[in-house]
Structures are given as C-alpha cells and as structure tokens.
Amino acid sequence: MSVISRGFGGRGDNDDARIPPGQHETYDFPVLSAGPTPAVSREEWGLDVTDLDGAVTRWGWPDLMRAPSEEFTVDIHCVTTWSKLDTSWRGVRVRDVLGDLATEAEYALVRCYGGYTTNLPIGDLVDRDAWIAYEYEGDDLESAHGGPARLLVPHLYLWKSAKWINGIELHLDDEPGFWETLGYHEYGDPWLEQRYVGD
Hints:
Elements: E1 24-25, E2 46-50, E3 56-60, H1 61-66, E4 70-77, E5 82-93, H2 94-98, E6 107-112, E7 117-121, H3 122-126, E8 131-136, E9 139-140, E10 150-152, E11 165-171, H4 178-181
Parallel strand pairs: 1-5, 2-11
Antiparallel strand pairs: 2-3, 4-5, 5-8, 6-7, 6-11, 8-9, 8-10
C-alpha cells in the first residue's frame, strides 16, 4: 500500500498572487502530523545543535528566551494543498541559533521529539527567513502546532517546518528525512509544486 496519495488535491487555479499553483486558501489551521503529538514541557525542552565534528551545543528554554527574538507575519503552504495567509509568529532566527557553526556545512538534518526528521540546505536556514518559533497569533504555540517550539521555513512546504524541534545536525552531504525517504521531494518549493520525487 502506498504512503503517498496524489488525492490531496488538484492543480487548480487561484486568483491570489500570494497562493502558489495547486493551492487553495484556508482560514483555519489544519493539524497534520506523521505521528502522535509529543507532550514536551518548556522545562524539558532542549535543542541540540551538532557541528560537523560531532560537538553538541545544547539550548534549553531559558537560552531560547534570552536570544534576540522578533515578531513576523508570513504565508504558509502545506503540501496537502492548503495555504494560510498572514500568519503571525514570534521566534528566534535559525542563523542566530547556529552562529558560526554553519559556515562549513552544506545541509542540515532537523530532528524532533517523536522521531520526525527533515532535511534542508543550510542556506535555507541561514540566508533566508527561517525561525525557531514559539508563539503563534500572540499566544504560546500549542503542542498540536509544534509547541513548545517548532522550525518555521515559510518559503518551503510546511513539512519542512518541523514541529517539536529538538535537534539540528550539520552535514556536508544531504541526508533525507522522514517524508523524503517515502517519496516526497527533497526540497519542497511550493511555487514549483515540488511535492513528490520527480516534480
């Protein structure tokens, strides 16, 4: 039985230039996950950043709260064909979390509570807008949406914005994550409809 279904939706047209091809606008915030929702308190939460040499820098919740944060508003796009416009968040830029560690790396493998992983080119985390987000619409991020903290990379399909983040491993070579090993596209650009291998 196939894990991938193209029955998520068609490649319909839309009238809003902010909505990528094949997407439709939604006004709620659907909850989709690869498994059960982990229950992680702020006291338990930690983010391990693993450098190319295997050295680990540990961020706890107090460290995240001390880091420079910002409020931002972005559009998000799910591979299941919905887009949600003007979503408001607060978080810390990933480039501020990685600092100088990312200078030699080419890729990152993001790990999460619950075992989920996803892969990204390092440039998408440090040269473009990407955050460790912990508030949504002015409130603490709910666990169903990845709280206490999630990765948010709004220029890619939302499966790349891993919920319940707890690790970023830096690599020279690409290593596919959970959905990528099951036939999803390695990159996931919504404007190019990069949903599955071969798109």
